[in-house]
Amino acid sequence: MEQPIMAEPAVPAPAPSGLSIRGLWEVFFQPAEFFRQIKDHPRVLLAYLLVVAATAVAVYLLSDFLAQLQIDAIRQRPNMPAGAVPSVEQIKPWMMLGAVLFSFLPLITAALALFWGNFIFGGKASFKQLLSVHLYGLWIFSVGGLIQSGMALAKGSLKASLSLAALVPNEPVDSLLYVALSKISVFHIWELIAVGIGLSIVYGFSRNKGYLLAVLSVGIMSIIHIITTALGKAFS
């Protein structure tokens, strides 16, 4: 009697060499090829550290502008005593706290993608895979933030923009119109496209469904920012 032939268990392919580092530029120019490797070998640490570092540098470079923006908003409050208005140096440390809070953003967007992709659209992906996709997508946006910080320093104003906000130069940077138009920028769109490609590959969805997931995870944060700005203006 012949013995049944037992199939050998599949041996996972080894992780490509230098994937974490190569992804820092491949995500810009060949995201599909990069995310096909990320699907089987998600990478988190390096991208996370660099996103946080890039955000901290951008906030540091713009801290004087951002602090002055906060001071101007405080001065506009009714019945605000002149002595209660903080100085730029008093506010600047709080700017760095904002950079720390920003580090939670990829965790939030990855969780949103997990909810929509796994529970609503019926796909299957791990949180680490999704976090890896969102981190490398956010890296694109972070590089854009550094470029825009350099432009702001050169111009001496926060109104140095690579977005449609450049069409309304007379609007305050914290106005609803300026904030809304600022979300339609080169690097916002680039990030959405890259994340959409990554999500479609990780889930095995169509490209259009991947883009929809990108909007429902990354894009929803921009929408929330616009809504909170509108509410702030309505009640100020």
Verbal overview:
This protein has 236 residues and is an all-alpha fold. 70% of the residues lie in helices and 0% in strands. The chain contains nine helices and no strands. The protein has helices spanning 19-29, 31-40, 45-75, 88-102, 105-120, 127-155, 176-182, 186-203, 207-235. Helix 1 (19-29) packs across helix 6. The longest helix is centred in the first third of the chain and has 31 residues, at 45-75. It is elongated. The relative contact order is 0.12. Residues 6-10 have low confidence and may be disordered.
List keywords for this structure.
elongated, mainly alpha, 236 residues
Helix-strand pattern: HHHHHHHHH
Instruction: Extract low-pLDDT stretches.
Output: 6-10
Number of helices: 9
In total, how many beta strands? 0
| Proportion of residues in helical segments | over 70%
Classify the secondary structure makeup into a structural class.
mainly alpha
End-to-end distance? 86 Å
Rg from C-alpha positions? 21 Å
Let me know the average pLDDT. Answer: 89
